[in-house]
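Expect chain and fold; see below:
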Amino acid sequence: MNPHDRYPDALIRRILRETKTIAMVGASANDSRPSYFALKYLIARGYRMFPINPGLAGQELLGVRVYANLREIGEPIDMVDIFRNAEAAGPIVDEALALEPKPKIIWMQLGVRNEAAAARAEAEGLTVIMNRCPKIEYGRMSGEIGWAGVNSRMVSSRKPAMMAGFQKFTVDGKD
């Protein structure tokens, strides 16, 4: 079995807990695109996001400056979230590996698997997650996804505390 076929929940939880900055390559200004609502969700969960889209570079998306490429960011990034196809993932991983310091995590979105790029990143000591979405994993780990009737594969007797405004949990299990 390929180690990228299934990831332990503890690994996903640790990544989501320890990550503070995320560069989202392939961020879109189209509010019907998955990258748009993933960006919006992750910003709302407190992550510092760096959208990457050469066509939108220099503009703002959801109140955050958009960059043309990873090098333009100019500060350390914990995770590179790849919202591009598998073929494009290779050059993006290579660009991430050229950064100093290197990111800790390469995360390829749902449907994106590039074994060769993953092997290059892992050889440099990075953790690689493929064919997963951090927004979905955050919702699953925090229990939020269950509010929509989705089976999160997480068993908990914790009852959500109803408060005024938008409801959310954290991946730490702390409200």
DSSP finds five helices and seven strands in the chain. The chain has a mean pLDDT of 89. The helical segments are 9-18, 34-44, 86-97, 115-123, 134-142. The longest strand covers residues 21-25.
